[in-house]
Amino acid sequence: MKLRHPLAIRVVALLAACLIRLWMSTMRLRLTSADGRSHPVDPKSSRYIYAFWHETLLAPLVRRRLPVRMLISQHADGELIAQVCRFLGIGVVRGSTARGGSQALMELIRGGEDSLHPAFTPDGPLGPRREVKTGIIMVAAKTALPIVPVGIGYTRAWRAQSWDRFAVPLPFTTIAAVIGEPIAIPFELDRGSMLHYKGHVQSILLRLTADAEDWAERLRSEGGRAQPPRIEMASSMRKSA
User: Fold this and answer.
1) CA gap 178, 225 in Å, rounded
2) Order of strands across the sheet with 28-33?
3) Which of 80, 103, 145, 151 is deepest in the core (most CB within 10 A)?
4) pLDDT for 17-29, tens place per residue?
5) Separation of alpha carbons 122 and 15, rounded Å
6) Is the pTM of this model over 0.85?
7) Residue 150, strand partner residues
8) Which helix (H) or strand (E) holds 235?
């Protein structure tokens, strides 16, 4: 049964946020990057657009100190997610490429003067799974904010039978995150350039996700001895960006 009443949505969202805080407190987060550093970008010194697949939407909640603004769909189900994010102290912009896209884009641009980082699930809200849409490229071009792609894997997770196979990490799961180098998008983009950067960001995200999932599998079987993946894509990212 889908929730539609505003009060019911708010109550359920508050309860869900409390459970998420307790649940996520059991998680462990492991970070690495394309150049081997555990903290490849400093969110306090510069602003970025963080990009990760829709199926891993819960993972950033572990990093609650990261000041992000999430782009959440204007579909009815998105209201519950938006309310949960607000209760968790996460900024929200409502919109998608299908509904409210122009308004969401303008709000993200207006937010360029504050300290929040836009966060995108570039294959959401309806898929196809792990396929980047052009919205994130447009926002990056208009705001001059580099895109930071993040691949995420879980040592243990339940998967929904949804279009994105939405992942719900189980308690005491280790989350493996592999962060790519910032990708700068030029302000002036024709259709060919738009498709080029769309494909480029998608290929990087797919590579980082594969590395993160492999790392998570090794963490599950080997424990803390599992070393982060060795990623040799920094030069290619700089060349294509």
Assistant:
1) 17
2) 28-33, 174-179, 147-154, 49-51, 117-120, 68-72, 91-94
3) 151
4) 898 888 888 999 9
5) 28
6) no
7) 179
8) helix 234-240
